[in-house]
Every structure is written in structure tokens, then in C-alpha cells.
Specification:
With about 300 residues, the chain is mostly helical. About 65% of the residues lie in helices and about 5% in strands. The chain has a 4-stranded mixed β-sheet with strand order 1-2-4-3, sandwiched between helices. A hairpin with a 7-residue loop joins β3 (about 115-120) and β4 (about 125-130). The two termini are about 15 Å apart.
Length: about 300
């Protein structure tokens, strides 16, 4: 007998796991900072952390406030016509009413893949973009399932959450890089050579921490996809619509292979409902599509 899943439980569990993973990045940051402060002068530690925070914030800030414009421009998306794309506008309006969110701006991008993405820093600045093949191949209920998934990302403030994650990952990576570089200039100081074991630990941590936090960031991205699936079901009360859409996305991606991947920037891959590059591993931004389908069909 198949275990039944409830969308509210799935939303809670995946949000909780996302927060735990985010806390893990903070722990990496604290441990790395502690080791740096032991090996180097504490004032130098604070200097490294301040520089790391400033660089990371400056790098992310522009992208955060212009995320919708950057995403739309990168795929050459055009505003959806109210006459030509009437079913799309109706689907977005229906899910907006069901979710209690303002209707986002609606765009269409030319692509041979069935796909869609949402972007924008908050519901008032949100956009949804759907590929031309999604409009051609999805039924009304399947399209509503896809739109509900994307509206779920908006409702859950996933752009904001992932931006915070990216900032923390950036801080850890930059701090580790600055620490490694500083060792070359402080090797003759007592604080840099006093404890060989601590120095080795610091080196290992500085090398592995950026890799570890990036893996955690990918795990968070996969959790947010599960959360969006469950929240989409909350909006439509019809999990089979999204499940059937994901089956078509899976089969469609298998059929066309990689010939249409040039339309997609790798930096934008996490935004799409289906991974445009079909990677399913610990390095993927999306969970396995068959597992997503299984969970939806169990709801």
C-alpha cells in the first residue's frame, strides 16, 4: 500500500530542512572564523570577515533587485499576449486568486523544451515565464499545475531565501580565499607557525568549506523545489495536474536531448521547474523528477 502524503506536512518538512541546511552554512562560517581568529590576529580576522561580507553583498545586491529583468533578458522573453496566450493568462489569474497573491507579469520564451520559471524579489515585482512548447503541449490542468508551482516559489519568497543563501555561501568562500592568501604573507609570524596541527586544520577547512557550502546550497535548492511542488498542490488541490506536467517535461527532455540547451544560462537553471540540463545528482539544482512525480501521486 502506497503511503499517502499530505501537502501541508510536505511543505512544513521541506521548509524545516531548508532552514537546517541554511543553519549548516552559518555553522561553517562560525567554525572557519574561529579557526582564523586562532591562527591570526583577532583584528585581522574581523578585517577578513568585514571584507568578505562587503564583497558578497555588493556582488549579490544588484542581481537581487534586478532578478526579474536579468532573467527575462537572458532568455529573450516577450510579454504574453492577452489574445494569443489567453489560456496562459487565465491559468495565472486563477492561481493568483487561489493563492491570494497579486497576478505577476506574464512572459513567453521561445524554446523546444517544456519549461517555466518565476523570478522577482517579492510578489509585487514577480514575473512568470513559460516556454512556447509548454503552451503547445500541456493541457489546461497541467499548465495550471506548472503555474501553481511557479506561484509557490513567489509565495514562499524563494528568490529572497536563495539570495540569502548565496550571500552566506559567498561570505564563506571569500573568507576562505582571503585566509589562504594571508598565510603566504604571515608565514614568518609566530601566530601563523605556532601550532602546526591547528594550521593544517585551518588549511583543510579553508579548502573544503567553500565546496561544502556550495553542496549545501544545491541541497537547499532541491528542497525548495519539493516545497514548491507541495505548495502548488495546496493552490490547485489537484496534484495529478503537476505530476502529469512533470511526466511530459521528463519525456520531452529525453526526446530532444541537449539540442535546445543553448537557450538557457546555467546561472538561471535553478529557476526553472525542470532542470534544462537534465543533471540528477548531488550537483543538481533539482531533485530527481521521478521522485517529484512519486510524491505528487502519493498526495
Amino acid at each position: 500500500m502506497v503511503e499517502r502524503l499530505h501537502f501541508e506536512d510536505q511543505i512544513f518538512k521541506n521548509k524545516l530542512k531548508s532552514l537546517i541546511l541554511l543553519a549548516a552554512i552559518v555553522v561553517f562560517f562560525i567554525v572557519l572564523g574561529y579557526v582564523i581568529s586562532l591562527l591570526l590576529d583577532p583584528s585581522y580576522f574581523f578585517m577578513i570577515m568585514i571584507v568578505s561580507i562587503i564583497i558578497s553583498l555588493a556582488y549579490i545586491w544588484f542581481g537581487y533587485y534586478n532578478s526579474d529583468k536579468i532573467a527575462l533578458a537572458s532568455v529573450n522573453a516577450k510579454p504574453a499576449s492577452h489574445t494569443e496566450h489567453r489560456m496562459l493568462h487565465h491559468a495565472v489569474e486563477s492561481i493568483a486568486i487561489a493563492s491570494g497573491l497579486p497576478k505577476p507579469r506574464v512572459y513567453v520564451m521561445k524554446s523546444e523544451q517544456i519549461n517555466a520559471f518565476a523570478s522577482g524579489r517579492d510578489p509585487r515585482h514577480a514575473v512568470i515565464c513559460v516556454t512556447t512548447d509548454a503552451l503547445d503541449k500541456l493541457s489546461k490542468q497541467e499548465l495550471e499545475g506548472v503555474i501553481a508551482h511557479e506561484m509557490a516559489h513567489i509565495a514562499n519568497f524563494d528568490i529572497r531565501f536563495m539570495t540569502l543563501t548565496t550571500i552566506l555561501v559567498g561570505i564563506v568562500s571569500i573568507a576562505a580565499e582571503l585566509f589562504l592568501r594571508s598565510l603566504w604573507f604571515s608565514s614568518d609570524r609566530e601566530g601563523g607557525r605556532g601550532n602546526i596541527m591547528l594550521l593544517v586544520i585551518g588549511l583543510i577547512l579553508a579548502i573544503l568549506a567553500p565546496i561544502a557550502v556550495q553542496l549545501v546550497q544545491l541541497a537547499i535548492s532541491r528542497r525548495r523545489e519539493f516545497t514548491a511542488d507541495a505548495t502548488g498542490v495546496k493552490f490547485t488541490r489537484y496534484p495529478q495536474g503537476l505530476a502529469n506536467a512533470l511526466k511530459k517535461i521528463r519525456d520531452d527532455h529525453d526526446a530532444i536531448g541537449s539540442k535546445d540547451q543553448h537557450h538557457y544560462a546555467k546561472a538561471l537553471a535553478p529557476l526553472f521547474i525542470g532542470n534544462p540540463f537534465k543533471v540528477e545528482s548531488i550537483l543538481s539544482t533539482h531533485p530527481p523528477i521521478n521522485e517529484r512525480i512519486r510524491r505528487l501521486e502519493a498526495m
